[in-house]
Amino acid sequence: MAYIFNQYINPKKTIKVSLTTIYGIGLTRTKKMLNALCLNLNMRTCFLTPSDLALISRYIKKNYEITSILRKRVRSDIQRQGKIRSYRGFRHKKRLPLRGQRTHTNAHTARKIRV
Known about the structure:
The chain is mainly alpha-helical and 115 residues long. It has 5 helices and 2 strands; from the N terminus they run E-E-H-H-H-H-H.
């Protein structure tokens, strides 16, 4: 079993898919990271050596903001928008779409987690 930043990495999936379970790491970042580290994108996670896992975790820690740090930053950005009484802050508070989507039919049933 492989863990990176206290997140279980599924050994049956490919590396590019299994690394996306880490909050803040998507498919684009995973591909860019694995190309920079010269690792095969389609290799299964179970074939990674401990040194490869250490290399990946060091790269992520050095270059990206992830997990709880990223969640705190996003939460504080949303709270700041509410404090300065911006339009987006009001939309966050009322749990409505922020980016110009229509609200006449669908948006009131959206279930998004917002602070």
